[in-house]
Amino acid sequence: xxxxxAPLGQEARRAVRWAVGHGLPAALLRRAARQGDLQGLMVTxxxxxxxxxxxxATAIREAGPLHRARYAWTTADHxxxxxxLSHPDLRSGFPRPQRDRVQRLALWAEEPRRLGPLSPPSLLxxxxxxxxxxxxxVTRVFSVRAVEALRARTQxxxxxxxxxxxxxxxxxxxxxxxxxxxxxxxxxxxxxILGVPASERExxxxxxxxxxxxxxxGLSYRQARRVEDALEDFRTWxxxxxxxxxxxxxxxxxxRLVAARDDETGDGLSTDELLATAGxxxxxxxxxxxxxxxxxxxxxxxxxxxRARLAREPSLWPNAVDEVLRYDPPVLLTGRTPAVxxxxxxxxxxxxxxxAAVLAGANRDPAVFTDPDVFDVARENARxxxxxxxxxxxxxxxxxxxxxGEVGLRTLLDAFPxxxxxxxxxxxxxxPTRILRGWAVLPAHLVPSTVSAPAxxxxx
Length: 460
Ligand code: HEM
Prior knowledge:
This protein is of the alpha+beta class. The chain has helices spanning about 1-35, 40-45, 55-60, 80-85, 100-110, 130-140, 145-150, 150-165, 175-180, 185-195, 200-210, 220-245, 255-260, 270-285, 285-300, 305-310, 315-325, 360, 400-415, 455, and strands spanning about 65-70, 75, 90, 175, 335-340, 340-345, 345-350, 355-360, 420, 430, 440, 445. It has one domain (about 1-455): CATH 1.10.630.10. Protoporphyrin IX containing FE binds near residues 124, 330, 387 and 397.
């Protein structure tokens, strides 16, 4: 009798996890959104209103520096977003349910602990001394110097993908740049960081793709199940991979992380911490960078004057990547919750409440950025954007993402001076994710469309 009960127990835990993490909050936020609640509208935007984050962010900023929405405090004010991200009393992650019964149920459903960007000991949801120790070790491995050492290799990867693009031209004369360029570039780089052999790259990319919606609130039960199953398969694969790296270390960053020891304590990362880091690097670093590339391509193709300026002044490229990150960031918002009752922007914020920091809104704050809705690759203070968050959780992969953004965008645009977005039937489409923002498909003509036909005919 006990055999069938075990999976049944797991399924019950899964259902509770989904209800607490997705079903219930999404239903409440959707109802609030229908009544015009700004935070509800921001978090539950449907595919039809995906374009709305910027007007919404403006509305949030105009409602006050820290606006009390139905279920959360919310801010799109640059100074307050910065204060929230570096506030000593605010922690990352979601507030625990306040009622004892619900809290016990939620804790029960979380067992056994699973791998995921929002599950401890992922850096994203760890705070205090553990986070500091853990971050010290990981930062050393992902230093700007270590990343610069990857630049030459990233250039090779970009060159090879560009050379291969004509083979991907479809019958309509366009190439989907997301599939053929924006995704494979960061996937290849991250696989090399993780020491993944080329033969297993596609498998790891598939894990990453399946796990990407894990940052979104309000997944359907089926979607949430698919994400959990993908993360579980990834964990199984990763345990074996880390064993392999321990026995046969390579020249990759993950092998270095496996061997890294803290100068103060002499300890390395535990297996759980290594698993969480590798999982996070994959989940946080692949989809986000693909989004940076696709958002950047669309912006530069839609602003030919800015593209021409980069051709004349290539030294502006690093700044252009920051302007892309400011103008259309891959991560729209993040959240914090107080560890003790505290004060934020002069307002009392209590334990159990949530503070949503709209990074994309802070990036358009006119108090910091002149003409914030203008895309300007030479903007002097573009780097003041908050797209990589701030404070203790400032993105660990920022240097890597900036380097990949620069190499990726520049290589493609230099190789195809006539690159143009598809139109009509072959139009670009946004990803349906709400917290992460990027393009799902980006059909483009590599050469003026009249001469693209021979490439189609010569395709095998
Ligand atoms: C354009 C690309 C990227 C963007 C926009 C981005 C954005 C972010 C943001 C907003 C956070 C903090 C979230 C919060 O404060 O709650 C974060 C954290 C993080 N990111 Fe990135 N990221 C990008 C690329 C990468 C890459 C390539 C890696 C791979 C190394 C990476 C690894 C991480 C890690 C490990 C953290 C957690 C840091 C901590 O909590 O201490 N990210 N990222």
